[in-house]
Inverse folding.
């Protein structure tokens, strides 16, 4: 089964899967009680290679945060199936204790609300050092490394400020602290769940710039979860778009913005007001995203899709190669076309 | 602001759903409560007077049998028929007490919430003072003034029960007052009365519904305690609390005489408690399954 | 003609044992009748204090807030009633700004009832149904509770509620920032259409400059309690003169990967210099 799945064109990448840092295959997430479970995410697959910067974009109910949290196995109530291989190890098969060693050590996590992620009663320094202390690093060594990472993140006078408490820090500073906690044990992957959503634009810019800098300097892979296509453009290499529990579109950032394949991606790009241009009237996507418990039959986007036809209302489209590269789940890019292209290629070869 | 409530809410929601979600509970509990209420109304009419009130020393402390389903007490009275007959005084008086002090509590909390800072201060100091009265001592006082009877106990318990409700409700109402939709209503030009009746109270009372139902069981127990010290229901009343306390001396030889009314109290408390949870899920759209 | 005018409005908060906080410093702001005016600022800039002052829930330390000749902080009786009827609000989070216990009919019809504009129940229901159609919902939604709607639909309900009593001035406090991206455009278009159709005046408070540029004809930028720049939005957003406005504009993420990457490069370079 697995070999067949990997042979399917679900990756935009041609790099071999063995080299992947993170390789998610057919991750399916269920919540709720047994007789009527709610399927939050269905067959999500994604590959990330060392140093990759990938954005996972979606709206509320798309399953993007649930996916990110489930990679880290943060919600014991969810039932997960599929596989999440990180450095060759299936995280879904690890015991809870082994998972603790992955979280915060091999994979760092940054959350949306920096205040909620910090304990108000413990000093900044203690909190940044905590992952190291748990790993058994000596206090003086941990202190030194905490100071270094705070320095790296532009916290001025880091040694003194480590004695401060979270409430003495501004929102942007707190997000730096959270980032420092995620970075201190030298992870090779950071999962950032809407890290800038709660921040003002200028602070948002600072935090993104920092993440940009750190990830480049350290060769760190970043999975950025966001609802904001704007923040994606300058920061990531690749974008995966989720809609109602499924990945519907994945492409390089340039392709996604220039030739969006999925009608949903196209609609999103047109519906967001842009600072560099005004239109007499914004183009809209009709309706609202469906609740995970009440998805329409066929493609979940079909009731809102201007291009929907009969097949869209009956059958869920599979991910297939998109014309401009990448993959897309839409009946407008039928297999026939891809096959024809492939045949054409073969003929040329012959 | 709403920190405590928002943190507890998901947990509470889960437990409420876990209990009330069990198939059948939603149906059985209201039926049980309905049966108890019917019993309270018709109980004294159907129970044979002799079995309930006539002492018969020769029949005393008999174990449960075909003749006496739940056995007999120290004076040979039939425990089963006494429970049936006592339902009225036990249940109706507790409902009356809890409803009475809830209404008082709502009034006081409303004054504290709407009356501004000063009114709030004064009212809450009075509440603090009233909280200092232990119900039993107060009931003794009332009984001394009005004569010992079930109605003195009811009055005493209404007069000592409201401060807890008032205090709880004032906290909840303050929190509701800080919700954006209250501001929204105020800038629409809604009057104070309407604000209270349509916006604040409906969004604050679900806490009280649960408390109301839970208090019923508690109240039956205290009423029993009052009967025991001689200021509540007077012998030979078949009030359940009085039956338990009356049978406590023979608990080793005839456990049924105390256990049966005790079980009736527990069952009633459970039924009303679950009813409170079910009502809460019904009333509060936020707790409903989406 | 100006419909709402803030003149030299100051607000200082005193907290025990702390330095007084000057939340608003000499705010001067004019909202011209029939326009959509934007007020832009970050959190803590004083936007919320301005809104609360216009709502009459917060009294300015000094200065006047005049709506159509009425000084709102001092308004009482008939004057206050007029303000309550003619100035309406749409809030950021439609979930918490709608009473969860009320049906859509009651929510939207409440203003009509309270201001005795339609006291007959069935006629009120009909008018509410019309309003719902106007904002893109239907009369089938009359008996539903806000919880059963999506975020965008709830904001439509909130708009219908505000528009029900025919306000002259609508204050919108970040009306789309809590909504799904794909739904924001619908609500922005709705506001714009309603304003064009009914001709009311809007004060639009937001942090998103792109949104402001799209729907506001004038814009004022507020920073730590002071208006630092004000003018037609095309001018202000195309050629900002104040460094703060410039910084805000630079920080807006650009959805063009080439431009955005270039920006990122520049920022990294700046970071290294600093």
């Amino acid at each position: 089964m697995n070999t067949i799945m990997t042979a399917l064109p679900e990756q935009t990448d041609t790099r071999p899967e063995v080299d992947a840092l993170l390789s998610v295959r057919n991750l399916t997430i269920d919540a709720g009680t047994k007789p009527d479970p709610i399927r939050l995410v269905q067959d999500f697959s994604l590959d990330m290679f060392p140093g990759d910067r990938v954005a996972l974009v979606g709206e509320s109910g798309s399953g993007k945060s649930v996916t990110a949290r489930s990679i880290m196995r943060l919600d014991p109530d969810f039932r997960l199936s599929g596989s999440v291989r990180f450095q060759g190890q299936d995280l879904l098969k690890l015991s809870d204790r082994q998972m603790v060693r992955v979280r915060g050590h091999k994979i760092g996590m940054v959350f949306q609300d920096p205040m909620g992620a910090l304990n108000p009663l413990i000093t900044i320094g203690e909190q940044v050092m905590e992952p190291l202390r748990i790993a058994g690093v000596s206090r003086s060594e941990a202190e030194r490394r905490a100071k270094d990472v705070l320095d790296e993140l532009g916290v001025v006078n880091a040694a003194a400020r480590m004695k401060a408490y979270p409430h003495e820090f501004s929102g942007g500073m707190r997000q730096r602290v959270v980032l420092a906690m995620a970075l201190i044990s030298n992870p090779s992957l950071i999962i950032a769940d809407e890290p800038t959503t709660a921040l003002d634009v200028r602070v948002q810019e600072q935090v993104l710039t920092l993440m940009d800098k750190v990830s480049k300097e350290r060769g760190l892979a970043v999975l950025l979860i966001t609802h904001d296509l704007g923040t994606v453009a300058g920061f990531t290499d690749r974008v995966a778009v989720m809609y109602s529990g499924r990945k519907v579109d994945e492409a390089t950032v340039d392709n996604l913005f220039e030739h969006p394949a999925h009608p949903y991606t196209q609609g999103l790009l047109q519906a967001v007001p842009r600072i560099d241009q005004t239109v007499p009237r914004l183009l809209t996507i009709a309706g609202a995203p469906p609740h995970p418990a009440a998805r329409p039959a066929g493609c979940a986007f079909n009731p809102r899709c201007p291009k929907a036809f009969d097949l869209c209302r009956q059958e869920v489209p599979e991910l297939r190669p998109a014309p401009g590269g990448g993959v897309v789940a839409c009946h407008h890019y039928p297999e026939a076309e891809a096959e024809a292209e492939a045949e054409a290629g073969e003929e040329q070869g012959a | 602001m709403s920190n405590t409530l928002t943190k507890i809410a998901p947990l509470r929601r889960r437990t409420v759903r876990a209990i009330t979600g069990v198939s059948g509970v939603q149906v059985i509990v209201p039926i049980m409560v309905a049966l108890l209420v019917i019993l309270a109304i018709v109980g004294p009419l159907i129970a044979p007077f002799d079995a309930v009130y006539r002492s018969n020393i020769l029949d005393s402390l008999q174990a449960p049998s075909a003749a006496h389903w739940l056995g007999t007490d120290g004076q040979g009275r039939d425990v089963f028929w006494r429970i049936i007959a006592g339902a009225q005084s036990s249940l109706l008086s507790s409902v009356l007490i809890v409803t009475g002090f809830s209404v008082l509590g709502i009034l006081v909390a409303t004054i504290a919430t709407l009356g501004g800072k000063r009114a709030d201060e004064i009212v809450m100091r009075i509440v603090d003072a009233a909280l200092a009265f232990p119900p039993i001592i107060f009931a003794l006082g009332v009984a001394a003034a009005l004569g010992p009877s079930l109605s003195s106990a009811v009055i005493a318990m209404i007069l000592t029960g409201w401060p807890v409700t008032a205090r709880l409700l004032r906290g909840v109402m303050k929190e509701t007052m800080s919700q954006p939709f209250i501001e929204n209503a105020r800038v629409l030009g809604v009057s104070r009365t309407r604000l209270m009746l349509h916006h604040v109270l409906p969004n604050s009372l679900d806490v009280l519904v649960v408390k109301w139902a839970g208090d019923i069981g508690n109240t039956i127990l205290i009423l029993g305690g009052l009967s025991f010290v001689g200021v509540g229901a007077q012998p030979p009343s078949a009030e359940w609390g009085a039956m338990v306390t009356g049978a406590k001396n023979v608990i080793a030889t005839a456990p049924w005489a105390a256990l049966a009314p005790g079980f009736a109290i527990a069952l009633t408390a459970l039924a009303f408690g679950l009813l409170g949870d079910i009502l809460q899920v019904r009333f509060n759209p936020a707790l409903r399954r989406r | 003609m100006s419909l709402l005018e803030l003149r030299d409005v100051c607000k200082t908060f005193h907290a025990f044992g702390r330095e007084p906080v000057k939340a608003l410093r000499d705010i001067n702001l004019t909202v011209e009748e029939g326009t959509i005016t934007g007020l832009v600022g970050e959190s803590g800039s004083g936007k919320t204090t301005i809104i609360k002052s216009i709502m009459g829930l917060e009294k300015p330390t000094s200065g006047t807030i005049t709506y159509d000749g009425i000084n709102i902080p001092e308004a009482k009786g008939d004057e206050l009633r007029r303000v309550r009827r003619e100035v309406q609000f749409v809030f950021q989070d439609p979930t918490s700004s709608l009473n969860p216990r009320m049906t859509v009919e009651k929510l939207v019809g409440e203003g009509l009832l309270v201001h005795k504009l339609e006291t007959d129940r069935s006629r009120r229901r009909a008018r509410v149904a019309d309003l719902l159609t106007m904002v893109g919902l239907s009369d089938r939604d009359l008996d539903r509770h806000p919880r059963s709607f999506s975020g965008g639909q709830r904001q439509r309900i909130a708009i219908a509620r505000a528009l029900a009593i025919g306000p002259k001035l609508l204050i919108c406090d970040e009306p789309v920032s809590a909504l799904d991206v794909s739904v924001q455009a619908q609500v922005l278009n709705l506001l714009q259409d309603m304003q064009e159709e009914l001709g009311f005046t809007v004060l639009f408070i937001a942090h998103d400059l792109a949104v402001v540029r799209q729907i506001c004809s004038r814009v004022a930028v507020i920073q730590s309690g002071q208006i630092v720049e004000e003018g037609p939005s095309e001018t202000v957003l195309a050629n900002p003169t104040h460094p703060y406005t410039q910084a805000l504009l630079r920080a807006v993420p650009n959805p063009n990967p080439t431009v955005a990457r270039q920006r990122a490069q520049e920022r990294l370079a700046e970071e290294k210099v600093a």
Observations:
- Confidence is low (pLDDT under 50) at residues 1-10 of chain B.
- The first helix of chain B runs from residue 3 to 20.
- Chain B is about 75% helix and 0% strand.
- Residues 3-287 of chain B form a domain with the MetI-like fold fold (CATH 1.10.3720.10).
